[in-house]
Amino acid sequence: MAKRLDLPFDPIARAADIWEQRFGPADAMAAVTSIMRAQQLLLAELDGLLRPHGLTFARYEALILLTFSRRGALPLRVIGERLMVHPTSVTNTIDRLEEQGMVVRRPNPRDGRGTLAEITGRGRKAAERATGDLMAARFGMGGYDTGELGQVFTLLRGLRLAAGDFVAGPGEAGPDGGGAGVRAQA
Questions:
Q1: Taking the CB of residue 32, how many other CB atoms lie within 10 A of it?
Q2: pLDDT in tens, 82-100
Q3: Structural domains of the chain, ranges and CATH numbers in brackets
Q4: Separation of alpha carbons 62 and 104, rounded Å
Q5: Dist CA 151 CA 185 (whole Å)
Q6: Residue range 117-139, pLDDT digits in tens
Q7: Comparing C-alpha atoms, which of 106, 105, 98, 102 is closest to residue 127?
Q8: Angle ∠(78,157,171) on CA atoms, nearest 5
Q9: What pTM value is reported for the model?
């Protein structure tokens, strides 16, 4: 869990006021800084919830991805693509999970050079218990109702779409803003 700061003012709002005076509009800077701080807070809380299971959020995500796969195994390359992380991060995550007996590496039968990560029974049990704890804590988002969570998802989905994380479906706005729109309606 992140250490409470209990400052007598909002440091991001204060920075935005100063930014406005020195550089001009501060809305984008304040939004980005708020997202980055929220990421720090959420990661600290989630890692704290996962620590008793011997997991970090990155390891948990990898285990869950493997449980979502039909055979409980995926090529490391696919894990990286789906988790949107660098191949080195995937290797480190799978190394740690393998050391803990939660995954094993196997040769990819479809590709003689490739490697699969396969979840073990121990990994499935850890993922199941950890999921229960995360669900009970609403993934650190307990202060928001379902509608607000949907709005957050929709707003950030537009950013991810514009970055090219995925291709817009029919009726969705593309990176150029065309289409029906993925942004929350005002």
A1: 12
A2: 999 999 999 999 999 999 9
A3: 11-142 (1.10.10.10), 144-186 (no CATH)
A4: 13
A5: 9
A6: 999 999 999 999 999 999 999 99
A7: 102
A8: 100
A9: 0.84
Query: Token digits for 123?
Result: 């990994």
Question: What is the identity of the amino acid at 47?
Answer: D
Listed as own residue / partner, the contacts of 124-133 with beta carbons closer than 8 Å and 24 or more positions apart are 124/63, 124/67, 124/72, 126/53, 126/54, 126/55, 126/63, 126/102, 127/60, 127/63, 127/64, 127/67, 129/53, 130/49, 130/50, 130/53, 130/55, 130/60, 130/63, 131/64, 133/49, 133/50, 133/52, 133/53
Q: What is the DSSP letter of 115?
A: E
